[in-house]
């Protein structure tokens, strides 16, 4: 048995209005076309759909079942149309966003809260991971968007939108002689310090070496830390001073001091990268929000 939904809709309309003539008028068909359609459906299912009565057509048990099912299908189709319209207009759908850890621990809660408040019908998935993995995920299409960062000697592959500058600061122990000095520091003022650096060839360590070379000194590396929280702990213990992006100091220990640096020390740039070959209307609302929040 192969049923045709359009023919079933004709049957349902006859059941709703009670006559083939009225159904034909509402469907912009001829009465004979409606009658033939009803007969074809009855032939396919092998059951009568209507009983002829003095005041019109009455549905049989089979006809009642057809009309109930058609009503359900039409309601579901209308709901699907509404949902698809919402997706197309960026008011619904799914969005996956990747971020790096220091943004995850600083600005991400605000981003997520505001996005969900503005777009409650869009499902937002967030992935926080290191930069190398983040680029792999966006390149493979597992993410719609990723917020990444670069320094001046690095290029961000793919199509990007620059979001903001994240200045470099220096972390000092609370009792350090330069902790209370006014104005930004020059790295040359810290030439004799021991340094706490990031491990695994992190770019903040490369930045230290590049800037120190411009200031004509070789930094003395005392310790290597795995992340910026560990870096803060080592600085607080008096084991050295450290460079860090300002975003990483959003959550900062009370026993260290964060000092600005002058323009001789490069800042990192935050970028928004969109996955190639992926198109989600929900991307545009997130881009709009990130432009607003990360430009503040």
UniProtKB/TrEMBL annotation:
The residue ranges of the HTH lysR-type domain are: 3-60
Domain of life of the native organism: Bacteria
Look up the signal peptide feature and give its range: none
A single Pfam family it belongs to is LysR_substrate
Q: Which GO terms describe its cellular component?
A: protein-DNA complex
Give the record's keywords alphabetically.
DNA-binding, Transcription, Transcription regulation
Gene3D superfamilies hit by this protein: Periplasmic binding protein-like II, Winged helix-like DNA-binding domain superfamily/Winged helix DNA-binding domain
Show the GO MF annotations: DNA binding; DNA-binding transcription factor activity
Family per similarity comment: Belongs to the LysR transcriptional regulatory family.
PANTHER family hit by this protein: LYSR SUBSTRATE-BINDING, TRANSCRIPTIONAL DUAL REGULATOR HCAR-RELATED
The protein depicted here goes by the name LysR family transcriptional regulator
């Amino acid at each position: 048995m192969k049923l045709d939904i359009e023919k079933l809709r004709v049957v349902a309309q006859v059941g709703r209005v009670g006559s083939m003539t009225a159904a034909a008028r509402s469907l912009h068909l001829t009465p004979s076309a409606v009658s033939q359609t009803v007969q074809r459906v009855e032939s396919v299912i092998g059951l009568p759909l209507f009983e002829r009565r003095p005041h019109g057509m009455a549905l049989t048990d089979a006809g009642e079942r057809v009309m109930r099912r058609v009503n359900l299908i039409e309601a579901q189709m209308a709901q699907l149309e509404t949902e698809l319209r919402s997706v197309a207009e960026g008011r619904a759908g799914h969005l996956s966003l990747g971020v790096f850890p220091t943004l995850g621990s600083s600005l991400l809660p605000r981003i997520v809260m505001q996005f969900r408040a503005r777009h409650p019908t869009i499902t937002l998935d967030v992935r926080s991971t290191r930069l190398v993995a983040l680029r792999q995920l966006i390149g493979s299409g597992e993410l719609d968007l990723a917020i990444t960062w670069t320094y001046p000697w690095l290029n961000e592959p793919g199509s990007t939108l620059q979001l903001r500058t994240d200045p470099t600061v220096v972390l000092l122990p609370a009792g350090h002689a330069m902790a209370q000095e006014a104005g930004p520091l020059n790295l040359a003022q810290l030439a004799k310090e021991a340094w706490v650096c990031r491990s695994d060839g992190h770019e903040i360590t490369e930045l230290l070496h590049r800037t120190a070379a411009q200031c004509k000194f070789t930094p003395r590396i005392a310790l290597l830390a795995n992340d910026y929280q560990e870096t803060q702990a080592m600085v607080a213990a008096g084991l050295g001073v450290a460079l860090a992006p300002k975003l990483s100091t959003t959550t900062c220990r009370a026993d260290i001091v964060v000092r600005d640096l002058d323009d001789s020390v490069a800042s990192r740039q935050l970028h928004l990268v969109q996955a190639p070959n992926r198109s989600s209307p929900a991307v545009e609302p997130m881009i709009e929000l990130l432009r607003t929040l990360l430009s503040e």
